[in-house]
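Table S2 (text version). Query chain:
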Amino acid sequence: MNGKLIVFEGVEGCGKTTQIQRIYQWLLSSGIPVVVTREPGGTELGSHLRQLLLEVGKSTIAYTTELLLYAADRAQHVEQELKPDLQQGKIILCDRFTDSTVAYQGYGRSLDMSLIHQLNAIATSGLESDLTLWFDVDVEIGLSRKISSNNGVTTADRIEQEKIEFHRRVQQGYTELAGLYPQRIQRIDALLDQDQVQRQIQAILTERLQNWGFHNT
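Corresponding structure-token output:
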């Protein structure tokens, strides 16, 4: 059986990273082969690219350079991790994938969308998510969550420090993507508490896993 790629997407502070770990434990306890990964940083090379992309430094990164670095991270990730895990029949829980590039670099940075789609196609060799869970939350709430989770200490990375208008454009991107691909992208109400969000995800995944032929033990 081929594995399945499940992607978790959303704006900063939407809560997806916490939910990925909870879903990982839930699937593991059900006897389903599952792995967790992320972009950027899902490989050794990717971890170095992640540091370049997210650390707050003295020098700025040109938008096109940023786009190409994300594409390089993805190309390595697909070949080294995603394809082998899928061939082994595993469920992959991936923190961000191609929709992030469309939302952040396309809508957020206003880069050429056709270029983004072309780079995504090259980097993925045509691989798409089998299911994307979009954590829908107001950007102001998401950003305030990031601050509160750090006990009020500002430790925002380079993307989190962008102006609020940037984050609103990113959110608009996710909203429009969800409308374009309703079969692939499922909305999660991320304003709810963690347990309620978890129940939403489990309900969606229970049905999908059965349809895919994965059965709990």
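Notes on Table S2: Strands lie at 4-10, 34-38, 91-95, 131-136, 185-189. Residues 40 and 50 are 5 Å apart (CA to CA).
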